[in-house]
Amino acid sequence: RLHYVVGTGRRGDFVFMSTYTLGVETSCDETSAAIVQDGITILSNIIASQIDCHKPFGGVVPEIASRKHLANVLPVIQKALDTAGLTLSEIDQIAVTCGPGLVGALLVGVTTAKAIAYARKLPLIPVNHIEGHIFANMLGRDAVSTPFLCLTVSGGHTDLLLVHKSGEYLHLGGTRDDAAGESLDKVARVLGLGYPGGPAIEQAALAGDPSAFDFPAVLSGQKTYDFSFSGLKTAAINLINHYRQVGQEIPIANLAAAFQKAVVDQLIDRTDKALHEYSPAALLLSGGVAANGTLRQEIVRLAERCGIEYYIPERVLCTDNAAMIASAGYHRSQMPGFEAADLTLNAYPDLPISGLIRRR
Predict the structure, then answer these.
(1) Which helix (H) or strand (E) holds 7?
(2) What is the pTM of this model?
(3) Residue 56: what are its φ and ψ, rounded to 5°?
(4) Is it the case that residue 329 has pLDDT exceeding 60?
(5) Structure confidence by residue, pLDDT tens digits, 305-319
(6) Which has the closest alpha carbon to 76: 47, 98, 51?
(7) Cα separation values, 9 from 13, 16, 70, 141, 143, Å
(8) DSSP string covering 266-292
């Protein structure tokens, strides 16, 4: 089921095989399908967002998310095929997020992918959502230098991983409580900035002074790569409540700027420590919070200060999307000993990043 592409190069005619992977992503509140060629080239990446559905509730409602996925998944897949100019008969394999995430939402994507794989006799590749975020950095690039250090920051996950090769991850540290994105969402909600909270905090912070408040530097100076945002979040919420109790106007812009800085400072602190201890060839950023402009700037400064390569996905590839799932699935299919999943594949809401993961 491989497609031959013929061309002419400096050494004469050549023929190489191209693989089209259909990716399906339904782990939370975006229904997405994408077609990726050879794990690198995006032919289509369709995303149906549910933000407007969940905004009145200040966060994702799992049952609503599942129902919206049911309504959207087949039209989104068809649009991905149409945009890529392909039909299902030209697809070589299908990659689907099977965890972690909301179990009902995951089941929609997994069940749909299994049905297509069965009907078209396609290899079915299960993909971990967090691994997908990492592989967003591979899209549009022939290669990424290894070993690399990857900081993955999202609404539910904050992890620091050392990667020597695809599928093998050394987990250096993770959040002990709230994830970075979760803390941004919760503070934004208390400030009345709406949902999603991360972009709202970032927008408000543009007019603020990040030095206006001195938030605690959690776990700073300790021998750990772990993160903790719960105490930081509580400190911000207590401060907001204090202003309300004494009847003073809340300095929203200053508070947003200072809180955002405290979150980013903690992320950079752990990443800086790991860079100095492990001396990787490159630094990668991934996850929904990787779309934050301040974090992106600080990662670039850190990498340049350390004199190493850095890779940051385009903003559209930071948030949940199927192109990253297709890329991760393709690269997993190229690993020695790879075996496609069978129809017993299920949704795993607490799926660890890889069966090969090792902890520091």
Answers:
(1) strand 3-9
(2) 0.91
(3) -60, -20
(4) yes
(5) 999 999 999 999 999
(6) 47
(7) 6, 12, 46, 20, 21
(8) HHHHHHHHHHHHH--SEEEEESGGGG-
